[in-house]
Amino acid sequence: MNFTVIDMNKWERRAYFEHYLNVTRCTFSITANLNVTKLILTLRAKGIKLYPAFLYMVTKTVNAHHEFRVCFNKEGELGYWENMLPSFTFFHKDDKTFSTMWTEFSNDFGVFYQNYLDDMNTYGEVKGLSAKGNEPSNTINVSCIPWVSFTGFNLNIYTDGRYLLPITTCGKYFEQAGEILLPVSLQVHHAVCDGYHAGIFMNELQEMADNCEQWLL
Predict the structure, then answer these.
(1) InterPro entries, alphabetically (predicted)?
(2) Angstrom distances, CA of residue 105 to CA of 44, 94, 143, 180, 216
(3) Element (DSSP H or E) covering residue 100
(4) What is the pLDDT of residues 100-154, one digit of tens each?
């Protein structure tokens, strides 16, 4: 869980960061439909759940680019984590509430999937906002709205505007022209991410879905 402090005097993004954090403070979101036809069929054949596969795809993409890992640490220093873990929501059908949980990440999907199953078996019935507790600082937020295939999704975070990490949400997948599409929304802070980075995020998720046989071993 190493945290690298950014040297502002050497950071090529300093002018953009200061502008979008202090002058025109803003976040933005983008929603895209991922073609998950091959991914869904492969998961079904292997008896694997979609949600943990999505968590894996998001976390691996985030860990591949330091722009998605930039934040302030507890000391107020700006920097980026060496790697991130997913912190995700899950639904309680009986009382229609949700809880959050974090899971240890591994680049080996089989290891990560077992971590996910173990945590859900242990904490899946625990109610309250945080089911597992003791969440590390190096987590990213991921959620799912499986009841609707949205065309756009935006979170309005009313804080001091210094939350810099990405937030990812997926919706209900649907069929169109013989293909299975999954709506995915990404919300980022413009101080650390631009449209280019949002494009990288969506494109790499699509590449992982297209090449799922390479990591779904």
Answers:
(1) CAT-like_dom_sf, Chloramphenicol_AcTrfase_AS, Cmp_AcTrfase
(2) 22, 29, 16, 27, 15
(3) strand 97-102
(4) 999 999 999 999 999 999 999 999 999 999 999 899 999 999 999 999 999 999 9
Contact 180, 37 (CB under 8 A): yes
What b/e sequence results for 120-159 when a residue is b if at least 16 CB atoms lie within 10 Å of its CB, and e otherwise? beebeeeeeeebeeeeeebbbbbbbbeeeeeeebeeeeee
- Residues of the chain with pLDDT > 90, as a percent, come to 95
Q: Please name the amino acid found at residue 57.
A: M
Q: Are strands 27-35 and 174-176 parallel, antiparallel or unpaired?
A: unpaired
Pairing type for strands 179-189 and 27-35 reads: antiparallel
Q: Does 92 qualify as catalytic in the annotation? A: no
Tell me the β-bridge partners of 78.
72
Catalytic residue among 19, 189, 190, 197: 190
What mean pLDDT comes out for the span 195-204? 98
pLDDT of 159 higher than 90: no
| Predicted TM-score (pTM) of this structure | 0.97
